[in-house]
Specification:
Layout: E1 6-12, E2 14-16, E3 31-36, H1 37-48
Antiparallel strand pairs: 1-2, 1-3
Length: about 60
């Protein structure tokens, strides 16, 4: 979904920070993804309640 409020996040199953996954402790499978800003806010709200949102991603082949 591409919209005017898109937000770039780094993901590796979980949300990663600056190309580093704290859960995997590596940067091997981290990729960039654009999500709606409302989705980012929802993920942050869930994380504040100790609920970890996980994204199941498929490989993209060009």
């Amino acid at each position: 979904m591409i919209s005017s409020d898109s937000f770039k996040v780094d993901v590796c199953g979980l949300l990663a920070y600056s190309w580093w996954c704290h859960y995997c402790k590596s940067s091997c499978h981290v990729s960039s993804l654009r999500i709606p800003y409302a989705c980012k806010l929802l993920f942050q709200e869930l994380q504040s309640m100790n609920i970890v949102p996980r994204l199941k991603l498929a490989r993209y082949n060009e």
